[in-house]
Amino acid sequence: MEDKGRADELCFLTEKDLLWGGMLADVLKQNKIPFLTRNRLGAGMALKVGPAMERVRFYVPSSHMEQAKYLVDALFAGNSHEN
User: Fold this and answer.
1) Strand-pair partners of 16
2) Phi-psi map region of 32: left, alpha, beta (phi>0 left; psi -120 to 50 alpha)
3) What's the CA gap between 76 and 83, in Å, rounded?
4) Cβ distance 54 to 46 under 8 Å?
5) Is 47 helix (H, G, I), strand (E, B) or coil?
6) Using a CB cutoff of 8 Å and minimum separation of 24, what contacts does 47-51 make?
7) How far apart are the first and last CA of the chain?
8) Secondary-structure breakdown of the chain: helix, strand, coil percentages, each rounded to the nearest 5
9) Alpha-carbon gap, residue 74 to 45, rounded angstroms
């Protein structure tokens, strides 16, 4: 029997700037993949340096990681300048 708590452990998926992060969030929602985001700088620092410098980290349950990675690869293929 599979350990459900371990199967749904959150795993780091990717980190994107705010613009691409919003697009990725929409794609994950459309594909019914649960995710959690964390801003790298935080609200206070983003206000000081500007939102263009803010980056968003995405985490997904391990049970959805394969599908989420596939979507990230498909969405950002050819965008070698974007991490």
Assistant:
1) 56
2) left
3) 9
4) yes
5) helix
6) 51/18
7) 38
8) 50, 25, 25
9) 31
Residue type, 9: E
- Cα–Cα dist 22/18, whole Å: 6
- In the sheet that 36-39 helps form, which strands lie side by side, from edge to edge? 10-17, 55-61, 36-39
Tokens 């293929």 found at: 77
Closest by CA position to 15, among listed 58, 66, 73: 58
21, two tokens? 């992060």
What is the full per-residue pLDDT of the chain (83 aa) written as tens digits? 345 555 589 999 999 988 899 999 999 999 999 999 998 765 554 455 555 667 899 999 999 999 999 999 999 987 654 55
pTM of the model: 0.75
